[in-house]
Design a protein that fits this description.
Blueprint: E1 2-9, H1 13-20, H2 23-29, E2 33-40, E3 43-52, E4 55-69, E5 73-82, E6 87-100, E7 103-115, H3 122-145
Antiparallel strand pairs: 1-7, 2-3, 3-4, 4-5, 5-6, 6-7
Length: 146
């Protein structure tokens, strides 16, 4: 399943980039993040709680950064699982920051493979959940940077 989205933040590209790598501040903007810790400078482990359809899930997982081109592009992988729904996710992602008039466009693309009980909901429910989370993240990020 592929998920793409973008939004504009009224802040300079360098400020947005720096904020995205301040993990404690960034984690406060991500809906559902309960914990996050740096394993090393390219690996992070954390817990994400979210609701997909009627199911509440608590994913524990790891984000590994594969490519970092400051302040323009980032790419990596995500692996996680939720014991309660016997679900797992493996994903690759890319994110870009592009200067635009009045600020910075943040865009991302995720290629995710979801297995288990949550996968039963299919693309439309998962995509709607992702769009909702992105909108909330963008709102929180704007509140911090604008």
């Amino acid at each position: 399943m592929q998920i793409k989205d973008s939004f504009v933040i009224k802040a300079p590209q360098d400020n947005v980039w720096d904020f995205l790598f301040d993990i404690p501040k960034l984690s406060q903007c991500v809906p559902g993040i309960e914990s996050v810790e740096a394993v090393d400078d390219k690996t992070y482990r954390g817990k994400l709680v979210l609701k997909v359809g009627p199911i509440k899930s608590e994913f524990g997982g790891t984000v590994t950064l594969i490519e970092v081109e400051a302040p323009n592009r980032i790419a990596g992988t995500v692996e996680g699982d939720d014991k309660s729904s016997a679900s797992s996710v493996k994903a690759t992602f890319t994110g870009t920051l592009t200067p635009v008039e009045g600020g910075t466009e943040a865009a991302f693309e995720v290629e995710a493979n979801l297995r288990g009980r949550l996968a039963q909901f299919g693309g439309p429910v998962i995509t709607a959940t992702a769009k909702k989370l992105t909108a909330e993240f963008a709102k929180n990020l704007r509140a911090q940077l604008e």
